[in-house]
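Handoff note, outgoing to incoming analyst
You'll be picking up this chain. Sequence as last confirmed:
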Amino acid sequence: MSDLHDDVPAGAAEEAAATRERLGAARAGASAQITALSREYDGMVEANALVAVDDEHDPEGSSTAFERAHIGSLLAQAREHLVALDRALERLDEGGYGRCEACGEPIPPERLEVLPAATTCVRCAAARTR
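Most recent structure output, in case you need it:
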């Protein structure tokens, strides 16, 4: 029976496996963060439902609203990161992982180590932010 990776050199297969493991670990971390933030957000909403919060007149109301918005923002970022990691796994399966989507050049391994879901090299990422 033929293995799907018969034509892939052993070093490349090992590198892909290590990348898949790193992406999987990052994905597990993002999922855990989403779970924790969701629990915190739901707890805050539930606690606020028990008391009549009038943000205008309650000295704690504005900080409660800020905390809720802050946690909501962190939750949205964590969800976006999870989606980006899933796309990175798809790129790995399709053979496009580690290549800049803008210029096609390889993304340096150091960048992928820090940002495993990176889709652009540093030069193209910097050009986008200008």
